[in-house]
Structures are given as structure tokens and as C-alpha cells.
Design brief:
Elements: E1 2-6, E2 17-21, E3 31-41, H1 43-49, E4 68-75, E5 87-90, E6 100-104, E7 109-110, H2 117-137, E8 145-148, H3 154-165, E9 169-174, H4 179-184, E10 187-191, H5 197-204, E11 209-214, H6 220-226, E12 228-236, H7 240-243, H8 250-260, E13 268-271, H9 274-280, H10 282-297, E14 305-310, H11 314-322, E15 329-333
The structure holds NADP nicotinamide-adenine-dinucleotide phosphate.
Amino acid sequence: MFTKIVIPAYGGPQVLKIVQETELPRPASGEVRLKMLATSACFTDLLVIAGQYPDVKQKPPLSPGYDIVGRVDAVADDVHTLQVGQLVAAMPQFSAYQDYLCLSEKELVPVPDDLDPAEAVSMVLSYLTAYQMLHRVAKVEAGQKILVHGAGGAVGTALLQLGRLAGLEMYGTASAEKHVLVKASGAVPIDYRNEDFVAHLAEIAPQGMHAVFDGIGGDYYSRSFKTLRRGGELVAYGFYNTAMGRGGSIPLEFMRIIAMNVLPNGKAARFYSINGLKEKHPDWFRQDLMLLFTLLQAGKIQPEIARRMPLRQAVEALTLVKQAAVKGKIVLLGAQD
Ligand SMILES: NC(=O)c1ccc[n+]([C@@H]2O[C@H](COP(=O)([O-])OP(=O)(O)OC[C@H]3O[C@@H](n4cnc5c(N)ncnc54)[C@H](OP(=O)(O)O)[C@@H]3O)[C@@H](O)[C@H]2O)c1
């Protein structure tokens, strides 16, 4: 018997159902069966569960779970690059919320065996997003100033750790209870609930930002744009506000980003999508993820894992994420042997 979490219909975390499967899935040609060791409970999973994530074409019933680290448990006869027992990572977008699942060998990236699966899975969605936005999109350089919104969240804390490693001067918006973490991660915290970040930054960093990383959206995109210096870039990457029902419309926000680039003010705006960049550059996905594993192994980054919970507690975990009650991220663990 093994556990699988499914959603019979779109909705909030409460639609998740625990199902007990009796038969292990069999790997088809080119596939590998994984025993799931760790997966995330993160905001992107909430979007998939709510049917708000455009890249997932499969309709319910489906098993959510955007990223995974697991051990190879069985391989199809025609799989020669991976062996039973090997530790691997993948980003299937959905399906990781089960103790056993089959994935194509082409989707799997080897993970150094001495890494903690919970820390390793933090590299897949949260850190890779942060790394690629910093180094593939904004191409930051030491000494530059950046603003990170949601600085106490999963991607926010990853941006700060990688930003510190890159020698950046950092500012981060977060609610007051996350300020100790934001400060410890090397940034100047801004309490967005009690002060206007545009006015506050104009006072404390009047030269403006080289880059802003904005996963919040709504009125944030245009306000973030105002904080940029000439030559600066807004990297928009999420619609947190809209998804939480705080106004805004996703098509309108995309149009706003396009419109920002026609203004003759020397500033630029781009939208980053981890999945879009993976499709365009699968080589970068693999290469950047392996680099992050190396940084993790060397102790240069330390993911902020607020809680490690068993997969069976996915509803509770995702409810905490929805309430923004998580400093860093939550990792869901597969069944222990
Ligand atoms: N484009 C991509 O490829 C990609 C990849 C990964 C994630 N994302 C998106 O990135 C966003 C963040 O993801 P995540 O996993 O880091 O989520 P998360 O862990 O839930 O973090 C979001 C953080 O934002 C803070 N926040 C909420 N409202 C805010 C506001 N108005 N101003 C500043 N901070 C605010 C929340 O806590 P406090 O309010 O307590 O500070 C929370 O810590 C989401 O929109 C997600 O969909 C996009």
C-alpha cells in the first residue's frame, strides 16, 4: 500500500484527498519509477490545485506536486542512463504528491547522494527560479542594488541567499514577523503593510534599484517599476495578489509589462517563467540545477525550511502556505522505510 494525494476537482487545499494505492506503477518505455523522498508544499501548488496555473493542461482528477527528489526504484528495459538506488530530481509540475510515480528518464537530474532530499528539493522550484532570474534574466553584478518582494517566502529567501552570494545590496518587502529572517539573509527589510515601499526606497536608496523581483503583481508591477534607476529592470514572475483575490487581472498585467517597455525612460520589464525557460533552454535547467546542488554541497547556501511534514499532511501544509504563515518553505516527505 502506498499513499497518493489527488484532487477530484479544482479548489482550495481542502479538496485534496488521500488515496491508498495497492499496486506500484510500472515504468513504460523510457521511464523510471521513483520512490518520492521530498516534494514542496508551495504557492505554485496552490495555483495548480485551484486550476489557475496555465501550463498544467491535465484536468482533475490529478495528483499535484510541482517538484520532487526521489530514489530510482525501478527502470524500464530501455533505460540505460540511470540505475536503481540513484538519487534524482525533477520538476513534473504535478504528480509528485505520491509515494511512487513514473517519470521519463529525460526529465531527471542526478542529485549528489550526500545531500538531504528536503534541502535538494528546495533547489528545484524555489532556488532555480531565484537563480535564473538573477543570473539568466537580470544578469546582476556585484555591488548592484535589488528589491525583492515577498522576501520571507520560498523564492524570496532563495533570492536573498543567492543575492548575498553575488555581492548585491538588497532590500526586501515582508510582513514584520519575517523581518528577522530577511535581515539575517542580508537584506534591509521593508514592512509593506505599514509603509509605502516606493516612498521608503526613495528616501533610503535614492539612486534607485538595478533590478526588482516581483512575484506579487497587481498594482505592485507599476510601483516596482518606479523604484528602478535608469537602465534598471523589473523581473515580474508571479500574480500572488490576483491569485489571492486582491484585484488585478492576469491578461491585463501581462499587457502592463509589455507597455512598460515602450516608455522612453531607459527601464525595462520582463516576465520570467521557470517552465517557459525550461522549454526554451532545457540545458540551462539541468546545468543551473546541478550548479545549485554544488553550492548546497559546499554549504554556500542553506535553504530556509520552516517545516518538514509527512505527505499525508499536505492539506495542513498548503493551508499554512495560503495563510502566508511560513518563513521560507515547507517540504513534504515521502513514507519512511
Ligand atoms: N514565474 C515562475 O516561474 C515562478 C516560480 C516560482 C514561484 N512563482 C510565483 O512567485 C510568487 C512567490 O512564490 P513563493 O513560492 O515564494 O510563495 P510564498 O512562499 O508563499 O511567498 C510569498 C511571500 O509573499 C509575502 N507577501 C504577500 N503579500 C505581499 C505583499 N503585498 N508585498 C510583499 N510581500 C507579500 C508573503 O508573506 P508576508 O505577507 O507575511 O510577508 C509570503 O512570504 C508566487 O506568485 C508564485 O506563483 C513563479
